[in-house]
Specification:
Blueprint (H helix, E strand, L loop, with lengths): L1 E6 L7 H14 L3 E6 L15 H17 L7 E3 L17 H5 L2 E2 L2 E2 L1 H12 L10 H24 L4 E5 L7 H10 L2 E7 L5 E6 L6 H11 L5 H15 L26 E6 L20 H11 L6 E6 L10 H11 L5 E4 L7 H7 L2 E4 L4 H7 L3 E4 L17 H9 L8 H12 L2 E2 L3 E5 L2 E4 L9 H19 L8
Parallel strand pairs: 1-2, 1-6, 2-3, 6-7, 9-10, 9-12, 10-11, 12-13
Antiparallel strand pairs: 4-5, 7-8, 8-14, 15-16
Helix pairs in contact: 2-15, 4-5, 5-6, 7-14, 8-14, 12-14
Amino acid sequence: MKILFFAIGNIATPRLEAMLELISDHIDKGDEVFILTCNGSLGTCYVNPYKLKSVCFSCKLRFKLGVKLLNINSSNIFFLKSEVLNKNYLNKEFKSIEELKQFEVDGINLGFGVVSFLISALKDHIFDLNLHRNLIFKLLRSSILVQESFLDFLNKMAMDSVYLFNGRFFDVWPVVQVCKKLGINFYIYEMGGSYFRYLLVKNQFSHDLGFCKKDIECSFDGCDKEKIEIGKTFFMDKRNRQEAIYCYTKEQQLNLLPKLFDKNKKNIIIFNSSRNEFEAFDSYKMFLYNDEIDAVRRIVNDFKYEKETKFYLRVHPNLKDLNNSQINDLKRLDFERHSNLEIIWPEDVVDSYALLDNCDKALVFLSTMGVEACFWGKTSILLAPAFYEDLDCCYKPKSHEEVIKLIKSDLKPLNKRDAIKYGYWVSSFGVPYKKFKPDGPFSGKFMDTNLWDRFGFINKMKLKSLIARDRFKQLFVKKVIR
């Protein structure tokens, strides 16, 4: 079997180490492994949007040291082209984000990867096309360069399978699209449910809603006591601020409720989500409402004469310190002065779990709090697509009228068994590493070697000098990505 690894962004751990693990597996099977990588020709990439020399230097050196550990023949390593051949598209003007998202070159979509990156990098699902015009052209140039380089490689050598990381951004998305068009199997790898695992998905994205829902069902045996305990631990760790990678509630004050919280009222907590990771995917589009603002506005308006009902909107902590479309929409909603709605902003230290405990029901948009509410014995109503939507842990209304009816009804919390199933999946999905030994979320040793430690004195001094120059340079360069 001939296997190609598309390897860019090699500065990141465990991104490079996961690739090395997979390469090692194929070598052990007797497959012939090829690598297509960047030698600095990309004008911008996901891990180095500013084209900093220190990042390029580290990326190339880490890749070189990694493949050296596996004794990969240099004749099996290929590099991206140095220049884009088709320049006809580099000055195209786009009238809308959707037009950019649908942009194609030679029948292959490139626009989705650009839009997906911009939403995540700018942390804004409605970004200004004119303001970021130059950046968009840089991203398109990199996408076209990847597309042309990959097609050029395939014209010289047929591959049985292609591996790449993540797949949804502009510098890797073209590879997925070419594979789909040519009928080549592709595998996407990502971080797994813990930093001791990696996720491997064939011919689809790890973000794919259908894949995730199916994987949840396949992963869990309700009779396995160990899996049940792992599932329960997921929820307890989140509540106790003991998450492995990032804890969104760590700055919140334990048991703190809003100052005027009235426990005698019928209180409803609403948990929203930050919209930057899944917004580009159509499968996550809301079907009951236009967006979360439309949903909250319509719901609170239907209760404006019911003085004993109060809504609290907990804005996701991941939106802290942002000035984007989502925050501005929420500010406009707040300015409308709905008497039965209180918005709790991302930086507010009010305890999300105290709100959950003291409210009658939870309304959720994608947020993990939807399934957490079920685990902690609360009625949960799901208003948007989510990984756990097929589990029996949330009420799933099919119309606005049904939403109102569910809020008014005396509902029992659903069985937490399916919530535990989700907790187990989130904690344990993926394949355990064999040769990579993590000692944290973004560090570890591959084949007992820390690649950063292998830089050597001269390379470390050169890197230090490049970092200093890059910092000096950035003082005079206006940052496009905030």
